[in-house]
Structures are given as structure tokens and as C-alpha cells.
Request: fold
Amino acid sequence: MAFDGANIWVANKGGTTVTKLRARDGATLGTFPLGPAPTGVAFDGTNIWVSTFNNSSNVVKLSRNGTVLRTFTAGSLANGVAFDGSNVWVANYGSGNVTKLSRNGVVLGTFSVGSGPVGPGF
Reply:
């Protein structure tokens, strides 16, 4: 889950969507299709980033209205995403590393961390 200042974004790993809830009352504001097994969600101050796990190495960048802006490749089985104030980090369960991306999706580095990293958070 991630908070964007007004809403909660939830990855629905058992499906293919993310759901946007209004934080003050939990009302569903939208459910957005993404592809297989979204697992992690992060907010970068402007956009929503979602990692996808099922046979995928992708991270999807969404606008706050749920529109897919772009899909970026990370490592094998992307299983979590976090924003550190400047960059987006993706845990790659299948490849035992984390990928650092700029907010524009440029790969800034890939770093070994050991077997099966999951869900980073800051």
C-alpha cells in the first residue's frame, strides 16, 4: 500500500489491478488494470509506481488518476517498490537484487542483496 497525501493505493497481487481508496472514509475511487500480480506500490510525490511479480520484471508508473504513463523493466520478479525522496527502488525477488531508477525510469544501478528480496519501504 501507499499513501499519496489524500488516497491509499492497494496492490491486488491475487489479481491484475490496483485500487485507489479515499483515505478519509475508505471509499473506492477506482480500480485500475495493470497486468499480472501487482505486489508493491510507492508514491513519488507526483506519480504512483507499482511492481508486478508474476513472470514479470516490470514496474508500472501511473498518474494519480490511474492512467498508465509508462512501464519500465527492472529485475526478475519485481516484488516491491519504494521511493527514497529522489529515486525509485525495486526489489527483484527472482534475481536477488534491487534496481535503482530515476523518476523518469532510467536505470541508475542494480545492486546484489541476496536471495529473494521483497517489499522495500522507507
